[in-house]
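Ticket #312: bound-state structure for fe (iii) ion.
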Amino acid sequence: MTVKIFDRPDTQAFLKELSGLNSDSGSPRVKALIHRIVSDLFRTIDEMNVTPDEYWTAVAWLNDIGAAGQAGLISPGLGFDHFIDERLDAIDDALGIDNPTPRTIEGPLYVAGAPESVSFARLDDGTDADGHTLIMHGTVHGSDGKPLPGAKVEVWHCDTRGFYSHFDPTGKQAPFNMRRSIIADENGRYKFQSILPSGYGVPPGSPTEALLSALGRHGQRPAHIHFFVSADDHRKLTTQINIEGDPLINDDFAYATREGLVPSVIECTDEASIHGNNLNGPFAEIAFDIHLTPLVDGIDNQVNEQRRRAVA
Ligand code: MBD
Ligand code: FE
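RESOLUTION: The complex was predicted; output attached.
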């Protein structure tokens, strides 16, 4: 039996009532958003004949997602994070702002408060025995193209098992392992030593994995390194680089890969480079310059408070 009740006047009146549109108090913005979203979901239930069992399965899944702390994980999996980036790009296009270093999604695994140092940092603590040494460096440029001394480069990545410190299910990593803030030197340069990360996979058996499986999708990301880059008088840049050669670069469940964010990885085996970096064996080297963009009417028009909320 197929019925359609969405367009009935009593249904439409009900949507206004449950969204608080008959009330003088509350937030007009929240009311408008809830009215639109619940209307869209009512319409979906009506048009697709969603059964009570399907509906309550979805409610139970939402509880599971929240209990697992994975709302921020299924969000990029369903493309919301990338869609928001595409909107920010479109706003910049409309304003005539070029982003020489593309933005891409933050993801859910940043932790504020990493140790800070000037010009150089070692990110890993040396305990990941499978790690291949990485040296990465570059110059942070301002919107005028000149180097930006004092720019802050926050960097974080996972280990060779794909686990991030603070989110390591084995509890093995020390706090802030593979997380640092580097202040660019007087020439705007940053440099760090770490290890090449592996790709990331959503937790096995998780509600995130369950939904992706129902979509016939995997929950894997190519190896990547995250950055926030900030400086006075510039907008904060959120981005990532992918490790060149990873087979999943164009098959990222979180849709973060972008042209311009896959720098070359050079394997260095010559003694001069090895000694020049105080290492004792071959290492991988990535050179990656970063360009920040100007404030808009004196403000960062695209910053969000996700990090501050995450710390609170
Ligand atoms: C990650 O490491 C990540 O960067 C994103 C976007 C989602 C899940 C795990
Ligand atoms: Fe990540």
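RESOLUTION NOTES: The chain has a mean pLDDT of 96.
TICKET STATUS: resolved
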